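Q: I have two molecules that I believe assemble together. Could you output structure tokens for the complex as a whole instead of separate predictions?
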Amino acid sequence: MLMTKQEFDQKMLRLQQGDEQAFEEIYNETHRGLFAFILSICRNYHTAEDMMQTAYIRLRTTVASYRAGSNAYAWLYTIAKNATLNEIARAKREALTDMDEGQDKFGSYHIDEECSPIMALMNKTLGDTERQIVTLHVVAGFKHREIADMLSKPLGTVLWTYNNALAKLKKALEKETADEN
Amino acid sequence: MKIKDIKERLKKEHEGYDIPDMLPRVKRAPLNRLLSGETPAQAFRKELAVRLLVTATVLLIVAAIAFTAMILLPSHEKAKPYCYVSIEVQKEGETLNFGLVFSGDGRIVLLADESGQEGATKMKIVSISQLYQYGSTDKTSVCVICEDSELARDRLKYVAGELEAAYAFAPSASLSRRIGNEDDRARLSAIVLSLGGEECESLADLVHQYFALVG
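A: Yes, here they are, computed for all two components at once.
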């Protein structure tokens, strides 16, 4: 069960006052969902690990500018998303200047297809936004309205994208099963 | 497969993932002090100031070490006394005088002509063989003044060896050698005084003064 927005807000205010315990509570209650979200963006376990660390460090460094009553979830997830997208852009720039231009650092999914067939299929079938919305709802446990707030998208768009993504996933899974048979 | 099943499986796959515990790493991050409400810019300025302070301190220490080394180095060299060698040549009724100074490590650092009115003048040559025109009837005497008697013998042997080599063509030329006595010291002292130097208590100071005034 996710902590409510109000609870998160209170913890952020405590963190602003230098309460170390508040940070631990925030971390313990958000890291699983955040990791899944980052993984849905970068599709690479090790990068997700680094980006999660970056996100929490940035949360602490920018906490002074957090205003009471803001959406702390949106704050944290936006930090994580921006950090991950910046990292992807940086890695792509490096890949372009690298001798081995053909290899895209984030081109290979690094998701074990045998252990995580649905995640692997998601990476192959769904677009970035679709993956993020499905992960935030199914794995992190956010409501569609909260996801709309976090991603700054209209609720209708989020709902449509979510349903469409699951339909695509179902179709791809059925096709895969049929191919296997 | 139903959508509900897909969702369940996706959730289970994520739960099966070993999520790294970043808390200790995040807590160790140096930026944690920003929790006090310090802005990154303020922290950066502080960090910069500390770095500049550290750099300045390191430079100061290096300068101090270099300065100490510069002070210690000459005194170390001084510990091995300079030696003065006087060469007197009787040549066809004429007397030529030359002065040599050896540094503590055995290098010839000064060759001077003491035959003129000026007392002693530095010669622009680098070896004993160039001191003067060697003649077959020359009578040469070598005298060494040095605080360290062992070094004195060593320098005397060296200079005499060089002169013997130079006179190898003239078996009738004579060469005498000796360690300097009080008279020789008085003569060197007179040269130093004539050049504007002062009386010295030790031989080492006397030779140093000669080297400083002539060189």
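A: One point stands out. The radius of gyration of chain B is 38 Å.
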